[in-house]
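FW: tagging you since you asked about this chain on Friday. Here's the raw sequence from the shared folder, copied in full. Didn't touch anything.
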Amino acid sequence: MIHNLPLVLQLCWEYIKISLAAFGGGYAAVGLTQQEIVNKLGWISTEEFVNIVAIAEMTPGPIGINSATFVGYMIDSVLAGIMASISFVLIPACLVLICAVLFEKVKSNPYIKAAVTGIRPVAIAIIAAAVLNIAKTSFADWWSIIPLVVAAVLTFKFKKGPIFCIAVCGILGIILYGFII
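HL: got it, structure written out here
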């Protein structure tokens, strides 16, 4: 049951706007969500958002949809989470269907190639900004660097997947923050 329909409808509108601007996928959407939902509208705190991103990363499915679901749930209800997720997917799904139909006609168009080439660096910048904003609040203290380094080594050197890294760093967090610090 929705408790605050005007708020949920505004949330849906925000996610429609975010999805329209989220070139670069879910991680770009995370940065835009933080900018709009956390910084501009103040519906949830930065700490809550960081937790949402962590949970959205751990759960199966795309991070953009998962985070929209969790944000909607935290703001109002399970139904609000579902509505936020649908709002986030609605326009891109329609655009993908249209692009799939038109792709054969435009794939060799030099303007389309040029536009896509120009958009790629923007996606990287949006993702980098999201990473830096989340990093500011994710590091509780200097000990927080240890899980970061462990995850980086596991990922890049040992080619371990995200589930393994999350499990190892979760155990490391229990050791560091539950027993030592």
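FW: The CA atoms of residues 8 and 31 lie 20 Å apart.
HL: agreed, and The chain has eight helices and no strands.
FW: great, closing this out.
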